[in-house]
């Protein structure tokens, strides 16, 4: 998706924002456009209070003078606007390609609604083509890996489990100090069952299946922005 299309999807989501709202700010290249546009609205006098889903987003928002808070100070948000790696049937999502899945899910779950902005390539018939991120505790990593491999086997994963690293080969570390396994399923036929199975592994902090959270998606295409509702 071109940067122009990303911005069009972000602009469509911005139409939902009203003065006085408490807003969750997503992470990623498309969400970044939303934050930029929101900053312009704030400069023009929009009153809002925002919770960022990552340190990167927090830095961007602060540079634009967007008022920030946290979920210790307030307990509910009106809306969260974020991107997605895949959008499946019923607006089930895979998120976490950027490594912010835990905070993204906490913020989304604390919101009255979650709005996703993405491009048409992210819309799929079944989740799983994109690797599923699984955030894990460092302690007992070998035991956690073996337990996750059993879950992959039970759910007929087509690929393997890989510990995420950066370009230099160093383990990727989340804002919360955790590690991420990427699980290559190919096709996830039972996302709800898989979600429960993953969360039953003691070393798993959270995973990138976002089920029942997204209420609407603005999908950018070369012909304009499509709206998907749950």
From TrEMBL:
Keywords: Isomerase. Its EC number is 5.3.1.6. Coiled coil: none annotated. Pathway: Carbohydrate degradation; pentose phosphate pathway; D-ribose 5-phosphate from D-ribulose 5-phosphate (non-oxidative stage): step 1/1. SUPFAM superfamilies: D-ribose-5-phosphate isomerase (RpiA), lid domain, NagB/RpiA/CoA transferase-like. It catalyses: aldehydo-D-ribose 5-phosphate = D-ribulose 5-phosphate. Belongs to the ribose 5-phosphate isomerase family. This is Ribose-5-phosphate isomerase A. The lineage of its organism: Bacteria, Pseudomonadati, Pseudomonadota, Alphaproteobacteria, Hyphomicrobiales. The gene is rpiA.
């Amino acid at each position: 998706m071109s940067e122009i299309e990303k911005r069009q999807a972000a602009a469509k989501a911005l139409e939902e924002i009203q003065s006085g709202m408490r807003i969750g700010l997503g992470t990623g290249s498309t969400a970044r456009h939303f934050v930029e546009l929101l900053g312009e609205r704030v400069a023009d006098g929009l009153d809002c209070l925002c919770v960022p889903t990552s340190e990167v987003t927090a830095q961007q928002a602060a540079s634009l003078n967007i008022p920030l808070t946290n979920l210790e100070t307030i307990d509910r948000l009106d809306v969260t606007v974020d991107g997605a790696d895949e959008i499946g049937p019923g607006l089930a999502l895979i998120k976490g390609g950027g490594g912010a899945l835990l905070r993204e899910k906490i913020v989304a779950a604390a919101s009255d609604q979650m709005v996703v902005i993405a491009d048409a390539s992210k819309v799929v018939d079944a989740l799983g083509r994109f690797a599923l991120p699984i955030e894990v505790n460092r302690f007992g990593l070998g035991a956690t890996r073996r337990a996750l491999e059993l879950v992959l086997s039970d759910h007929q994963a087509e690929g393997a489990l890989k510990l995420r690293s950066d370009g230099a080969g160093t383990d990727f570390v989340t804002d919360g100090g955790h590690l991420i396994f990427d699980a290559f399923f190919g096709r996830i036929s039972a996302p709800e069952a898989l979600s429960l199975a993953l969360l039953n592994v003691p070393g798993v902090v959270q995973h990138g299946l976002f089920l029942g959270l997204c209420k609407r998606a603005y999908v950018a295409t070369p012909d304009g922005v499509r709206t998907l509702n749950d």
